[in-house]
Write a structure and sequence with these properties.
alpha+beta, Alpha-Beta Plaits, two-stranded antiparallel ribbon, 3 helices, globular, YCII, YciI family protein, Dimeric_a/b-barrel
């Protein structure tokens, strides 16, 4: 099953710095196991563009649409047997401690 893993900042990171995981090790391990299919860091929110159409009019604005302190800073596309395995992969990502991870399975277009 494929999961999109959104890597996000958080206003309340873990303050325990013991045994902090290394992102390069995390990537290498999950690539080798075939669980990480793709992933990357995103440009800062200052590079974001929001596109909307309202009543037929195109509305384009700089920056993210949501006014929030937490932002998506990267993503990873995972292939896992089930949600439990995806949670285990996310748990070991460095940003699970420094930020937060959102897992979302891919849906089906009907």
């Amino acid at each position: 099953m494929k999961y999109m893993m959104f890597v996000c900042t958080d206003t309340e990171p873990d303050t325990d710095r013991t045994d902090e995981p290394d992102i390069e090790v995390w990537v290498a391990v999950n690539d080798a196991r075939g669980r990480r299919l793709d992933g990357n860091v995103l440009a800062p929110v200052t590079a974001a563009t929001t596109v909307r159409v309202r009543e037929g009019e195109l509305l384009v604005s700089d920056g993210p649409f949501a006014e929030t302190k937490e932002v998506i800073v990267g993503y990873d596309l995972l292939e896992c047997a089930d949600l439990d395995e995806a949670i285990e992969v996310a748990r070991t990502h460095p940003m699970a401690r420094a930020g937060r991870i959102e897992l979302r399975p891919f849906g089906h277009l009907g």
